[in-house]
Design brief:
Elements (H helix, E strand, L loop, with lengths): L1 H18 L16 H9 L1 H8 L15 H14 L12
């Protein structure tokens, strides 16, 4: 019973951490746009943003108030790495 309790507590904590900085949640503005590292974070949590965006229209996958190219670079780098796209440049073991 104690192990299940800690597992549930851990899952709740992970869910709160992952959803605390979702794109479109009002954390960013034109005066304080999202940058490169925020783009990486939003790329990593994009699948969660997509699912939660189905139930809450204010949550989006991509932050509209961003710094431009650097945010895009971080976002797409995390998306590609998250779905195994960077495996193309790894050397195969014989």
């Amino acid at each position: 019973m104690k192990k299940q309790y800690w597992m549930l507590l851990t899952l709740i904590a992970i869910a709160l951490i992952l959803t605390s900085c979702l794109p479109g949640g009002g954390n960013y503005s034109p005066d304080r746009p999202a940058g490169f590292f925020t783009g990486i974070w939003h790329g990593w949590i994009a699948p969660f943003s997509l699912i939660l965006g189905l139930f809450n229209s204010s949550i989006t996958i991509y932050e509209s108030f961003n710094t431009g190219w650097w945010y895009d670079f971080g976002f797409y780098m995390a998306i590609i790495a998250g779905f195994g796209g960077l495996q193309l440049v790894r050397k195969k073991k014989s």
